[in-house]
Write a structure and sequence with these properties.
alpha+beta
Length: 196
């Protein structure tokens, strides 16, 4: 019914059924996992009015730590979740998956719980579990632009405050601002414009 995929690993399609409506995948060596994709195989749909809440369990000496990542439904049959930021002990929730069947401290679990759609809509996923929709290059470029502009603006002085120095070249802050705005506009239109 479900599949689980971690980049660089084989697809898992054999979930362990721990209850009539609960399924679990083991993720060995979870410390090196950044994102997890959970999806329906397309062979068996959810019952009408139901979907699957997706949980992540990190091994913890105090018992399993189940954290809600999000959900999948017949209308949204797959989802990618960021799990690299989720650590043991940060969020403890009660969840009916019970104790972890894995005895190893380096094996995390992904659980899918079949629940009513109205229940799914009322649940709040743990913060930071949604996969980033922005390209990391775009994030880097935006941070670079902001840093340069803020750095240059920190040296801004009025014309009255300027002291003559023949070895210094001054650039009006309006020029830096105009460049900043043009670069942002070009990045939003075509993030690969700089390659041509």
């Amino acid at each position: 019914m479900f599949g689980c995929l971690v980049a660089g690993r084989l697809v898992q399609t054999e979930a362990v059924q721990v209850a009539s409506d609960k399924f679990v995948f083991d993720l060995p060596d979870y410390e090196h996992v950044n994102h997890v994709a959970v999806f329906m195989l397309g062979t068996v749909p959810f019952p009408a009015g139901s979907g699957g809440a997706v949980y992540f369990s990190v091994p913890d000496c105090g018992g399993p730590v189940w954290q809600l990542l999000g959900f999948i439904t017949n209308e949204k049959p797959s989802a990618i979740f960021r799990v690299s930021r989720l650590k043991a002990g940060e969020v403890r929730g009660s969840h009916p998956f019970g104790s972890s069947s894995s005895s190893s401290s380096s094996v995390a679990q992904v659980g899918v719980s079949v629940e009513a759609l109205d229940q799914l809509a009322q649940q709040t996923p743990v913060s930071g579990s949604a996969a980033s929709t922005e390209d990391s290059f775009l994030q880097f470029a935006q941070k670079t632009l902001d840093s340069l502009f803020n750095f240059a603006a920190s040296f801004a002085v009025t014309q009255a405050q300027m002291t003559p120095n023949p070895s210094e070249t001054f650039i009006p802050s309006s020029c830096v601002l105009k460049w900043y705005q043009n670069f942002q506009r070009r990045m939003s239109q075509n993030p690969n414009f700089w390659k041509t």
